[in-house]
Amino acid sequence: MKPSMIALAVIFGIVLLGAIIGICSGRRRQMDLEQWTVAGRGFGVIFVWLLMAGEVYTTFAFLGASGWAYSRGGPTLYIIAYLTLAYVISFFILPEIWEAGRKFTLHTESDFFQQRYGSKSLASLVAIVGVIFIIPYLQLQLTGLGIIVEVASLHAISRPLAMLIAFVIVAGFVFSSGIRAVAWVSVLKDSLMLIAAFSIGIGIPYHYFGGIRPMFKTLTQAKAAHLTMPGSTSNLGHPWYISTVLLTAFGFYMWPHAFGSVFTAKSGDTLRRNAVIMPLYTITLPLLFFVGFTAILVLPGLKNGDLALLTLVSQTFPPWFLGVVGGAGALTAMVPAAILILSAATLFAKNFFRPVFKPAMKDEDVAKLAKVMVVVITGIALYFAIYSSTTLVGLLLLAYAGIAQFFPGVVCGLYWKRVTTAGVFAGIIAGVGTAMLLVLSKHDPFIGLNAGFVALCLNVLVTVVASVLTPAQQDGFNQPGSRAAASAVAISS
Amino acid sequence: MKIPRTGALLLALVPFIAICFSVPLWDRVYPLVLGLPFNLFWLIGWIPLTSLCLWGAYRLQDRRSGKGASE
């Protein structure tokens, strides 16, 4: 058997196992909209942890982080910092979001805006902006999958074909079982990811240098400047680090899929306890950095840093192990991709199409349209993945610059009585507009700061000023809830 | 219920200062600690410390909800 066949067979076996787990876990339940998107709001600490870890540790962490460690160096540290700090923010805001979700039976981020601000146009804006920025994140996952299959097949399968295969598997996976499947497949994905991260993060430096310590000793002698900011870049210094960490930590739970996963929890306390343990999972990231750093010394001159991890694995380990790492990588792309598609499709159907074009639409028809949108949205991301060539981290930063613009609307909605619909609407438009203008005209970083962060500051300013200038309005969370009995308890506190 | 406790907020501020705003103070290669460049060591060290801060914030929250609040 040829080495590439062994690696591919192992990857395929792992993906198949994931698909079987997914299909079995969803089969015995009736899939209405509530089950499909929030799993009946019954997840405890462990399931919420699995689901959230499942969507956080994507192929971005796997290939993108090591790729940036390889090509950029020091600035890559922002990834550890923003993930850790995102959980600190989540500790405070997620239980409040969950509370509103239970009281008013919310499914999505757009539902949240609809309920709080009572504005159909604001809710539709949030839905469509959410869908638009999910696409680059989804593109990132498909690109990652493409890279994995391409390298594991020793370049026998071309990347577009690999991405097409990935597209079919992911879409089928989403169709069959909804959010519950995703949480179950996360178990397999996370175990494999941990095994892969530890064995290559420790094994690769050991293989070439006899350990992590001697690897860093060699690297600091050869390229010490690579390891601090701005590393091997000219413009990613400390102001960039601070602004990027803040932007991405604030933006983290603004992702429609992350926001939606809040509603699967059983209680607000589940989310608080989850926030306490989530940072510990970030420990795996430095291991992937070690691989990128080793690659600088062993494989200098790669054109695309995103290939560094897998190329190094294929040179170091036997083909079956490349298959295990590739399979783990494939699942870390597929599981988040499935969640992204599911959220984007639901948002589009329920929160954009129905209110804007067909208010009389029934829930079953919304579910049907969502399933059609699964194919459409994945198709668009596939198109971009094949025809563009941004790095994985570059794609994520672009997406964050847009998605973080929901932050002022969510936080003001929870804590500031005086905020108005007009303020939030103007803030989001100003923020998204500025972010895209700066990024697309290649002004990122802008005066040393992350362009998305500059846009976010402007967004906050516009939200506050416009809110104060417009007449005060009622807080939609202060109305009696759709679950009257439960809400009576909440209000009395 | 709505506005978080001051103590919990202060505990939450600690990791922000330690791993975000103070970056010019610790972003250096030397001294290597446990074989790691100092900046990497610092960030890794703050992962469990952040969990610890949140655990403290959780305890504060817990004590308050014991006094007859919701949940």
CATH level-four homologous superfamily name of chain A: Sodium/glucose cotransporter
Using the coordinates above, name the CATH class of chain A: Mainly Alpha
Q: Kindly report the average pLDDT value of chain B.
A: 83
- The secondary structure category of chain B is mainly alpha
Helix content of chain B: 55-70%
H and E string of chain B: HHH
Report how far the terminal alpha carbons of chain B are from each other: 11 Å
Looking at CATH, which topology of chain A would you report?
A: Sodium/glucose cotransporter
Portion of residues in beta strands of chain B equals under 5%
What is the total number of structural domains of chain A?
1
Total helix count of chain A? 21
Description:
The complex is a heterodimer of chains A (493) and B (71). Chain A has helices at residues 3-27, 33-38, 45-56, 59-71, 78-104, 109-117, 120-152, 159-209, 212-223, 238-251, 256-262, 268-277, 284-298, 308-316, 319-357, 363-387, 392-403, 407-415, 421-440, 451-469, 484-492. With 493 residues, chain A is an all-alpha fold. Chain A has one domain: Up-down Bundle (Sodium/glucose cotransporter), CATH 1.20.1730.10. In chain A, 61% of the residues are buried. Residues 484-493 of chain A have low confidence and may be disordered. With 71 residues, chain B is mainly alpha-helical. Helices cover 69% and strands 0% of the residues of chain B. Chain B has 3 helices and no strands. Chain B has helices at residues 6-21, 23-26, 38-66. Chain B is elongated. The model of chain B is unreliable at 66-71 (pLDDT under 50). Chain A binds chain B through residues 74, 77, 80-81, 84-85, 87-89, 91-92, 96, 211-214, 216-217, 220, 224, 227-229, 238, 241-242, 245-246, 249, 267-269, 272-273, 275-277, 279-280, 282-283, 286, 289, 414-415, 489-490, 492-493, and chain B through 1-4, 8-9, 12, 15-16, 19-21, 23-24, 27-30, 32, 34-37, 39-40, 43-44, 46-48, 50-51, 53-55, 57-58, 61, 69-71.
